[in-house]
Amino acid sequence: MQSSASQKEFDFVIVGSGLGGLACATILAMEGFSVAVLEKNNQLGGNLQVYSRNKSIFDTGVHYVGGLDEGENLHQFFRYFGILDKLKLYRMDDNGFDVIRFDDGSEFSYAQGMDKFREKLIGYFPQDKSAIETYCSKIIEICAKFPLYNLSVSNENYHMDGEVLELNAYDYIASLTENVCLRNVLAGSNLLYAGVKEKTPFYVHALIMKSYLSGAYKFVDGGSQIAIQMSKSIRRHGGVIHKRKKVVSARYDEKGAIREVVLDNGETFAGKHFISNVHPSVTIDIFGQERFLGVYKNRVQNLENSISTFLVHIAFKENTFKYLNYNIYQHHLNDVWDGVHYDEATWPQTYFICTPRISRTGEYADSMSVMTYMKSSETDQWSETFRTVAEPGERDEAYEKFKSDKEKKVIAQLENVFPGISEKIKHVHSATPLTFRDYIGNKDGSLYGVMKDSASPARTQINTKTRIPNLHLTGQNISLHGILGVTVSAFVTCFSFVNKDKLIQKVKNA
């Protein structure tokens, strides 16, 4: 590419092709702007990426999705993007899409739809009927306070009032009932947001729970199809997407606005506006620490990220393990909130189990994914190493042994849930916090970015606008993580450039 003097100036240059970057690019391209998306890796999509080993397909981040029933929020967003009818989806079990399972073998299912969910829970805990009804009403009440979640716009700030933000999830659930088992069941899927007893706000729990109750589906053959279809939509509307383009710095005009971004190979991309889909603290590193106010920089760089994960992928021998059309949240603990502060000696104490839906699978599963918490400090000794498809590096034998030992521990625990599963396994591989760090581009492999804190909500809120006049942020750190949270965040980012009332009307009319 020539120097920036003779190259095209885009209306928007977007750094990072995670869902937030792709969603912003789609919205802006559909609104007639010229858009370029720059991705450092070989594959688009951030947490939407999949990979295959020995002909088995594995998701890295997205194992199921909610809000996809007719008329629900994500259903309409995907319709608006023009991708809904192109996605291969498989509806999960109506009577129990998630199963909360405990050490004694007891199981409790979440049914789809708020009414069925409520009735099923009351069936398990008839003596706690009023607590369950209060809980379900509270979820509906809280979700009603987030305009975009309900496809409406409000002139208020998108970050809600203090009362909503300061309500703690653990405390609220504990206030409803003395029944410890019911408390554990209500919070049993808290791996979805890496719940921390002292910190996680109830609104995070509520928005995520209601989303899955509004239509839980698996992506057939993996979640990367979202990235594939959105990138087609971007190109169809004139946008361009470049892979293996790592942005390392920026050049500024005399007014302090970004003129162009600079890649690690010296190439430049010029733009009127820039959107970073990279973690805010990494964004500060890329665009220059000196460009941000010290107070802001210190706050963002000292925010605590949610914990990382160890992800085990198991491929089965043919026709040996039945396909599960539900997920299992397995807890070997008396309190489901304690998994995040695990003891390495008894790890893993809490984990998520799913069997991906593959187009060729019928009665039997091709594979299984098991996701459990892992602190990034466990892989610190290899933190200087780096390994992706775009930048292949090596890690030593000690790292491979570390992974292998951890895989064995996970499979030993799985034997408690599925006795004899070891005999059915063809091969196993895994991803550590370093894998997520390298592919997602944050500093510690954090699963869900900045941890929300009910004790000081304002501190963990990050605005889409920055001090650099033409640099905006998007992604999971803006509103909420997950497919729905990141999609909503992209709309919030784009409201700076597009009439929000007209835009949301287009979503509703899609």
UniProtKB/TrEMBL annotation:
The keyword NADP applies. Residues 19-479 form the Amine oxidase domain. The keyword NADP applies. SUPFAM superfamilies: FAD/NAD(P)-binding domain. Keywords: FAD, Flavoprotein, Membrane, NAD, NADP, Signal, Transmembrane, Transmembrane helix. InterPro entries: Amino_oxidase, FAD/NAD-bd_sf, Retinol_saturase. The chain crosses the membrane at residues 12-38, 478-498. Gene3D superfamilies: FAD/NAD(P)-binding domain (3.50.50.60). One of its GO terms (molecular function) is oxidoreductase activity. It holds the Pfam family Amino_oxidase. PANTHER family: AMINE OXIDASE DOMAIN-CONTAINING PROTEIN (PTHR46091:SF3), BLR7054 PROTEIN (PTHR46091). This is NAD(P)/FAD-dependent oxidoreductase. The lineage of its organism: Bacteria, Pseudomonadati, Bacteroidota, Cytophagia, Cytophagales.
